[in-house]
Amino acid sequence: VIEHMEEEQACVFGNLVLSTFCPHILIVSTPNHEYNSILHRSSTEMNISTDEALEEIAQAQPYRFRNHDHKFEWTRLQFNQWAVDLASRHNYSVKISGVGGAADTEPGFASQIAVFQRKATKEAPKECSQEDMSLPYKVRWKWGVN
User: Fold this and answer.
1) What is the CATH number of domain 2-128?
2) Which EC number(s) does UniProt give (predicted)?
């Protein structure tokens, strides 16, 4: 839900989380801005019978953000570039997916999801070493630990 912060903050967020906290998995979701044309059309009460008429309306009306408190929304290309660049800088793999709609049909998924997974290494990256990090929180529960 990175669209609720400023775009620059979303970029800082990704770098900060992957370099400081070094999670094994990070899941990030955000709207696909390209899908807004479908949502916009479905929210207006129009009776259109031809694909050409739909295309004319989609081009004539600017796409809005989905929610009034969204600070930005990325296209599939923008989200993919951000995720791939972030993953490569921090030794993570990333898989792009989504929900609502379909990947192989335009304009893709309604919401985009990036699943970052830390690549296996013999030792944790130096910047992720728990020994050097003073944590401002206490671990209350760990998955799989009784």
Assistant:
1) 3.40.50.150
2) 2.1.1.386
Q: What are phi and psi of 104, to 5 degrees?
A: -95, 10
Q: Tell me the pTM.
A: 0.69
Maximum pairwise Cα distance, the chain: 65
Residue 1's contacts (CB-CB under 8 Å, 6 or more residues apart) are 29, 30
Domain ranges of the chain: 2-128
67-97: pLDDT as tens digits? 677 888 899 999 999 999 999 999 999 999 9
